[in-house]
Amino acid sequence: MGWFENSLMARKGVAGGAAGAKHAITIADQGAFHYVYGPYADPVIEVEPGAVVSVETHDAFEGKITKESDVPSQILNFPFLNPQTGPIFVKGAEKGDALAVRILSIRPRGPQPVGTTCLIPEFGGLVGTGNTAMLNAPLPEKVKKIRVDEQGVYWSDTLTLPYEPFIGTIGTSPEIEAISSLQPDYYGGNMDLPDVGPGAIIYLPVNKAGGYLYLGDCHAIQGDGELCGVALEMPATVELQVDLIKGHGNAWPQLETEEAMMFIGSARPLEDASRIAYRELVRWVAAETGQSEADAYMLLTMCGKVRLGNMVDPKYSVGASIAKKYLK
Amino acid sequence: MGWFENSLMARKGVAGGAAGAKHAITIADQGAFHYVYGPYADPVIEVEPGAVVSVETHDAFEGKITKESDVPSQILNFPFLNPQTGPIFVKGAEKGDALAVRILSIRPRGPQPVGTTCLIPEFGGLVGTGNTAMLNAPLPEKVKKIRVDEQGVYWSDTLTLPYEPFIGTIGTSPEIEAISSLQPDYYGGNMDLPDVGPGAIIYLPVNKAGGYLYLGDCHAIQGDGELCGVALEMPATVELQVDLIKGHGNAWPQLETEEAMMFIGSARPLEDASRIAYRELVRWVAAETGQSEADAYMLLTMCGKVRLGNMVDPKYSVGASIAKKYLK
Amino acid sequence: MGWFENSLMARKGVAGGAAGAKHAITIADQGAFHYVYGPYADPVIEVEPGAVVSVETHDAFEGKITKESDVPSQILNFPFLNPQTGPIFVKGAEKGDALAVRILSIRPRGPQPVGTTCLIPEFGGLVGTGNTAMLNAPLPEKVKKIRVDEQGVYWSDTLTLPYEPFIGTIGTSPEIEAISSLQPDYYGGNMDLPDVGPGAIIYLPVNKAGGYLYLGDCHAIQGDGELCGVALEMPATVELQVDLIKGHGNAWPQLETEEAMMFIGSARPLEDASRIAYRELVRWVAAETGQSEADAYMLLTMCGKVRLGNMVDPKYSVGASIAKKYLK
Amino acid sequence: MGWFENSLMARKGVAGGAAGAKHAITIADQGAFHYVYGPYADPVIEVEPGAVVSVETHDAFEGKITKESDVPSQILNFPFLNPQTGPIFVKGAEKGDALAVRILSIRPRGPQPVGTTCLIPEFGGLVGTGNTAMLNAPLPEKVKKIRVDEQGVYWSDTLTLPYEPFIGTIGTSPEIEAISSLQPDYYGGNMDLPDVGPGAIIYLPVNKAGGYLYLGDCHAIQGDGELCGVALEMPATVELQVDLIKGHGNAWPQLETEEAMMFIGSARPLEDASRIAYRELVRWVAAETGQSEADAYMLLTMCGKVRLGNMVDPKYSVGASIAKKYLK
């Protein structure tokens, strides 16, 4: 029996971790894409807990950057960026529950070179931006189109990077807000955290009936921080298994893998993102192991792990985790 | 002739600064209040540029904290906080324009003690919060009800503070986002900047047709930073004169008084809010005076002024200004 | 009787606010200048509480930028920047006391144009720096030499700014650290706060015997934030009256004027500087007025004032103050 | 041939990576410990490049917390914290060079339980501090003494954590500053980065003749961020091989292991620490591989790794690295 049978999803999910009906959302099914995480859109599909859904996603540029001579600032039209598929309505989901989303696979979709990365003016970790407002001239724009398949990312003739795909943007709807899909927050969104890849389960807080699951922005590979503002962006086909945990009550996204349990915080400055993630983890470890909060705090000063998602979005994202083997 | 005749509003407004038709929005007219700044609500009223509008606002607690023994955390129901009157649709307003909103008067409304301040758990400048997540226990909750009239704020038997009213939350709608009225941003919102008071004109970027002007959250007096998380909150009647400047193109709110021109930035950390405000001001001074950006930058290192709005909201707000007499 | 007779300095100082012996430190007396605030230097002079000291200071560039064609990065030699006069040993000063330093006058010193401002690569509020590390190219360097006298600052043929001098850098020595004079901190240092001008009294924590008072870096005028990284720098002659308050115990610099009492915090990010200043002020107001800390916190949410010193130094500085008339 | 023969140390060191004379510094040899990184102390030993030095270090509490009933705030006497062994004078080292320090071994030293962790008031990642100044009451103080040997860290009867030792504080002297050993900065210091362990080589900028190498503060194990403010602190015996690279010119610490090359930045807020580390790495990758800075920036957006050292010291520390196999 694998670890999945002992996951929160399998133990607490309404469907008990069992795979249910199969669904698909193609680009054509989706029709209009969404640029906000919000409750004002109509669900593209309605599913029962346990549903297995195959989802076609656009890349963050909606496929508009097609060649290396393209100039991003002439093509991209803020705020119509980072198009999202969904929302998926999960039956029975109510405020206070969590959607459990198991990522089964992520495959690149479309003609080669399928991957795109670029430098966009006033965007990125080592340049002035709209918030960290500077008078310096922006860096020159630049586009790289890169061949990607499930065996590798072909950066250059001499260097092949591994294919390490994940979902850059995934989350539920806020209750009354509709927030740009460029931003991560308490409901998920544009966290750009490489851990959100095949094999992982993400537990997303439900803020409104049906949960309203959105996703998009798959990455073929990404370093910690998504340094230049974008990763290796690609259109993809994502296969998900969606379950529902009643009353799970997590205030921020939680992520489970075979080895570890993680919480994900998003905020500025970056220490606040880390504080959010670690506070959730301290409290979860204390509850899970029966230790006091003070002891859990001290245990994590020994063995907590931090993963930087992005340091470039409107909020920065950090995952704080503990190895499951230390939960005793 | 007063300074108003030389204001941007009078010189560039569609109505040329002339007062037009009178309108009123009472609490009853408004009916349901709004808790987000967004385009998904229906306008409560539609006006021509020049309109003079009398608006009744709730306090930030929607009047639910009525006595000093109330416990805020038992009464307040996130995200249904900071109720906003509006939206007001301004005819002819299109993306890229600015609404010019002249504040004519702000009067407290309702039975005494009309003012409320309080300590709310995990909210305020000197306590851990949802973002600056701490393990420390919150401060005890506390409510103070304070008598306010247009002559003063009666803090105690021995101390009367001046009545220095302003609008804590005012702004236009984002194009596709709907953002909590607790947050300030590029469209205005919960800036909590004491300069937004009678006599001032605020220029708010238009992001969607009609502008969609919202307001609420009047304060009888507030210190810089809104230190404990709320000011002296009061229900109010606000009188506004609303004009429209075509193609004004400001990316962030701009504020004009007899003496000074200001830009308002909102971001975290606080230095980013200051950078936004100052960059807008540098560029405006350069354009206005014909100096180079470098010279405007150096001039402001001599005589720029900074006003801290809030250091407690989801984003912090800062106004950077220059005295008009130095614009030569 | 003026306000000074009721100041902390006059009421609590060892010399009771009385002016004592006169001393002078000229550039020649000083000999070698200091670039750190530390205990490892020998005092240039030893004085009794009450001493009136006339001090000649260099400008922050040690007078090396003499003409507008100078290139700062070729002239300035880090870490030998911001030369300080002192240290002045105050007899009787011990750890836990405070030096009370009353600023009597600040006059420009030397040939015209006596004022210098400039753009230095990777330095300033609206550019990438050594800490806020960017890949953008720096702005071009630029020097402006400006005529200054006690009647005004002659920015251009058409614009004269007021002469509003203050001491940019003043403080005591840390106990065992020696910290660059470019940095402000708990002992004072490079706060660049315009309130530190003639008429004000600054109370500086004593960390080692004798206090070791250093000063330098006078400014003819400066905007809030010292936006481009430097103010209008000038060599000056400063007249100070130095007293000693035994056991005053302030952890951070405190400043008193006729109207207000202020505390000064220095940290990054800017909200932390504000938090430090405001927490000191909350506690002082509570102690001074007999109110609870919670009440003082709420009073300051009504009437606290914030002054931004610098947002460009290794730490940022903020003063938080209350009008004395509200202390009842 | 192992990777060490191809390290920067072996290829560029004055001693060419060869082990030279053996030296030892015992607690008795050291005598007085140091609490600042500065040039004002006398070297405890003078060595040639290539020297192998065995160093006894105190724990961060100088061994004063001996039992779980101890109360840290009654024992610890700021600023006399985090005692450092050294300085070691390396012959031939001049400003602009780098010391190459290879960590050969770290062994716990002294009677069991040799490890100490604790909660100290106003210190730690999830509590208010002297900088992030709060009004909340501090958490209760708490001490845990933990048995440690080279096989494990005996957290509880049921949980043994791995022994993963490293040097919490190591660095050279600034040129004229003397900075608390609690702080990390451009010269190293209290980085608390778990990568600084056996097998790694750290390249520390030389700011003054002889370099003045200090070290202390060994940790038996630590999670990312050193969450509660301290790790598992222990007295240790550290064996180092010290070489010298002339003209290496790194502005910030650089670290090499078999697999990766890292730069370490320290600043607040945390994004600035990341920016420093990543900018150094971008420039180094560009120089090393012949790619443009823009290409190196894009490569690191694919495969850069970030390790959080501490988020609790006066500055926070972050290491940014690239796998050596991607350097082609």
UniProtKB/TrEMBL annotation, chains A, B, C, D:
The record ties this protein, via InterPro entries, to: FmdA_AmdA (IPR004304)
Q: What is this protein called?
A: Acetamidase/formamidase
Taxonomic lineage of this organism?
A: Bacteria, Pseudomonadati, Pseudomonadota, Alphaproteobacteria, Rhodobacterales
Q: Name one Pfam family in it.
A: FmdA_AmdA
The record lists the membrane-crossing segments as none
Citing just one GO molecular function, the answer is: hydrolase activity, acting on carbon-nitrogen (but not peptide) bonds, in linear amides
Signal peptide stretch? none
Q: Tell me the superkingdom of the source.
A: Bacteria
Q: Which PANTHER family match?
A: FORMAMIDASE C869.04-RELATED
